[in-house]
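pinging the channel bc i need a second pair of eyes. not urgent but kinda urgent?? the chain im working w is below, pasted from the shared doc
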Amino acid sequence: MFTQIIKNTPPWVWGLLLGLIALGWSQAVARRASLKRVLVLPTVMSGLSLAGLVSAFGVAPGACAAWLLGALAAAALVLPARLPAATVWDAQARQFQLPAGWTPMLLILGIFFTKYGVGVALALQPGLAQSGTFSQLVSGLYGAFSGIFLARAARLWRLSRRPELAQRLLKPASARIYWPKRAAIVLAALVLIPVLLLAGLIGLGGTQAPPVASAMGKVMSDRVYQDLPELSDYAPRDGARLAQLPLLPRPDR
């Protein structure tokens, strides 16, 4: 089934994935960026998560409320955290000196794979679009991604407005950051979990049978089968015994 899913994926989806990976890779190197440039990525990715919500569930009040709650909860957890020690705000140049980091890449992939997984799930089981539980869980996940993005940008904005608080807003320079372990945990939470949820949905839920064609059922129910000729035996060359129904001549002949 997974092979068929990959084959039926439109080519532009893989092009979008490559573009998002390139965008995430640009965030994984040390760089200088203005405040406006820092705000571009959270805005774009939040828009992508909202687009995924609307395309899957429309403007449903429950889904929108779940997105907002997910965003607020994630932002409340991320906003109090300190920025990396290597983060510097240059007030004269009005630019940040930002250290390398893989968190943006993981968040980007998390949004992409969630949107991809939801699209596949709805293609296999269209009825999930009407499920309040499913729509609220997915919308909350979308909101959590957006909340993390927006909170990270808000921390930088706060540093630019209150540079005198840098000692309180930045982590100590001597703090050791075990980034490989942290990256592995975040990757599992943001990328693998949506994929595993999709795998469970496909493996346990399967696909839904298409609805019965009401027009065809009406045609067959109007037929009268009382005056049909009797069945006759037919012996093919392999020796099996088959029953056949003689064809009736058309009334206009």
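so Residues 13 and 173 are 41 Å apart (CA to CA). and Residues 2-205 form one domain. — does that match what u expected or am i reading it wrong
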